[in-house]
Write a structure and sequence with these properties.
heterodimer, A: 39% helix, globular, B: 119 residues, alpha+beta
C-alpha cells in the first residue's frame, strides 16, 4: 500500500467509533487488509473479504506458540514447513504455512482450523482487555502466514469477546483485574494436587509467582481466556495465591517498561569504554527487538486508509 | 466449507444422529454445528457443563479425567464426548433420536466419531 489517504479510496471505511464498529463496516465493504490497533497491548487484525482471519497481538499467544508450546507440533516440523513455504513462493509471496503443515502431515486440516480459530478469538479477547489507543485500516501487502480461512464474522467475534468478559466477571474475577495479578500456588496446593486435573497441575507447576495469566498462556501454549477460566476454578479450590503485578490495574503485563523516575544509580566503578567495532548497547537492543518495547511500539506511519483516535474502543 | 464442518457433516449420516456440535471444552468456543444442534444448548453451555461435572467429581474424590457425559430424555439421547489432544481438549456433542438408536450404540458411535473427527 502506498499510503493513499484512506477516506478517498474506494475500499476506505467511513469513520467508526470503535474497533468492532470499524470491523462491521469493513465487512460490508468486503475489505481485505489489516486493522492496526495501537495501545497496550495493541495488535494487528487481519481481514479477508471483511472476515477476520487472524489477530496478532503480544497480549495472546499466536498459532505458532499454541502449536509449539503445547507440543502439538515439534520445532523441526515447524522449521521444515517454514522452509517449504518460503521456497514455494510464487511472485515472492510465501505459501500458506497452514496448508504446508497439513500437506506435510504435521497436523490435520480440521485440527489446524480449531487452533487458528482459537487464536483469533483469544487475540480479540486480549485486545479487549488492553488500553485502547488508535487504529488504522490498511490494505496489507502480505497476508498472515497462517490464518483461518474463511475467517470469522466480526459480529460473532464481538459477541464471543463480550461473553468471555461477562463470564469471568460473573464468576467474580473481572478479566482486567485478573490480568494484573501474578499467580503462585497456595500453601494448600501441595496437599490438593493429587485431586486436580492434569491441566490444573500444569498451571501449578508453571505458576512461579512471577507470571500473570498472559505469561502462563504463553508458557503453556494455551489461550489467555482458557487459562483465566482455569485460574478462577482453581481459585475456588483455594489452590492459588494472587499477588498484584507491578503494572497498574487494567494494564496487561506486556505494558512497555517505563524508565524509573529520578537520576540513574551512580556507579563507583570506572566508566565503560567502547571498543572499536562493537555496537552500542542501544543499537543492539533495537536490532533484536526487545519484547518490552519493540513488540508494543506504536505502528508505523499510516500507509493507507483510515486513522482515528479512539477514546473508547469497546 | 471448512474441513471441520465437512467432518462434522459426516456425523449426521450415522444412525439416529439429528444434530452435533464441536466446541473447545475449556473456553466454550463453538467451532462447528450441524443439524438440530440447538437441542444441545450452546457450545459455551456444554463446556460449562463439563467443567461443573469435573469440579463436582473431584470434590467428591474422583480421580482421572472426564471422558463423556450422557443425558437421556424421553425423546433423545445427548452424548458429550471429550476429545483429548495436545493442548486444550475439544468436545463432540451429539443428539440422537431414541426411536432410531439405543444408548449403548449412541455412546460407542459418538466416541468413534470423536476419534475420527480431527484425523
Amino acid at each position: 500500500m502506498t499510503g493513499e489517504p484512506g477516506l478517498d479510496t474506494p475500499s476506505a471505511p467511513p469513520a467508526a467509533h470503535s474497533v468492532p464498529d470499524l470491523l462491521l463496516t469493513l465487512r460490508q465493504a468486503r475489505f481485505t487488509g489489516s486493522v492496526l490497533v495501537s495501545g497496550t497491548p495493541g495488535g494487528t487484525i487481519r481481514l479477508e473479504q471483511g472476515l477476520v482471519t487472524a489477530v496478532e497481538t503480544p497480549g495472546a499467544p499466536a498459532v505458532e506458540t499454541l502449536l509449539l508450546k503445547s507440543g502439538r507440533i515439534g520445532e523441526a516440523q515447524w522449521a521444515a514447513a517454514e522452509a517449504a513455504a518460503g521456497s514455494a513462493s510464487p511472485g515472492g509471496r510465501p505459501a500458506d504455512l497452514g496448508a504446508v503443515l497439513v500437506a506435510q502431515g504435521a497436523i490435520g486440516a480440521a485440527e489446524l482450523e480449531t487452533v487458528c480459530a482459537a487464536a483469533v478469538f483469544d487475540g480479540a479477547f486480549a485486545l479487549a482487555l488492553g488500553r485502547p489507543g488508535s487504529w488504522q485500516a490498511a490494505e496489507a501487502d502480505l497476508p498472515a502466514r497462517i490464518a483461518l480461512r474463511p475467517g470469522v464474522e466480526p459480529g460473532r467475534l464481538s459477541e464471543e469477546t463480550a461473553r468471555r468478559v461477562s463470564l469471568l466477571t460473573r464468576l467474580g474475577s473481572p478479566p482486567r483485574e485478573l490480568a494484573a495479578v501474578r499467580i503462585r500456588p497456595s500453601a494448600q496446593a501441595g496437599t490438593a494436587v493429587a485431586r486436580t486435573s492434569a491441566r490444573h497441575r500444569d498451571i501449578l507447576v508453571a505458576a512461579t509467582g512471577r507470571r500473570t495469566a498472559r505469561d502462563l498462556a504463553f508458557a503453556l501454549g494455551r489461550g489467555v481466556f482458557a487459562v483465566m477460566l482455569d485460574l478462577v476454578r482453581m481459585d475456588a479450590g483455594h489452590l492459588l495465591h494472587r499477588e498484584p503485578a507491578t503494572a497498574a490495574p487494567g494494564v496487561p503485563s506486556v505494558a512497555p517498561r517505563t524508565p524509573p523516575s529520578g537520576p540513574p544509580p551512580i556507579s563507583d566503578g570506572p566508566l565503560p569504554r567502547r571498543i572499536r567495532g562493537e555496537q552500542p548497547l542501544g543499537a543492539a537492543a533495537a536490532r533484536t527487538g526487545t519484547p518490552a518495547q519493540g513488540a508494543l511500539s506504536a505502528p508505523a506511519e499510516p500507509t493507507a486508509a483510515h486513522e482515528k483516535s479512539e477514546k473508547n474502543a469497546r | 466449507m471448512r474441513a471441520l464442518e465437512r467432518s462434522l457433516s459426516a456425523v449426521l449420516d450415522s444412525p439416529g444422529v439429528i444434530g452435533a456440535v464441536v466446541a473447545d471444552a475449556v473456553s466454550g468456543l463453538g467451532h462447528a454445528s450441524v443439524g438440530e444442534h440447538r437441542l444441545l444448548g450452546t457450545a459455551a453451555e456444554l463446556a460449562e457443563l463439563v467443567g461443573l461435572v469435573d469440579d463436582g467429581l473431584r470434590a467428591a474424590g474422583a480421580e482421572g479425567e472426564v471422558e463423556s457425559l450422557v443425558v437421556s430424555t424421553s425423546r433423545h439421547h445427548q452424548v458429550v464426548q471429550l476429545i483429548a489432544r495436545q493442548g486444550d481438549p475439544l468436545l463432540l456433542a451429539t443428539v440422537l433420536d431414541r426411536t432410531r438408536t439405543n444408548l449403548a450404540l449412541a455412546v460407542r458411535q459418538t466416541a468413534d466419531q470423536a476419534r475420527e473427527l480431527l484425523a
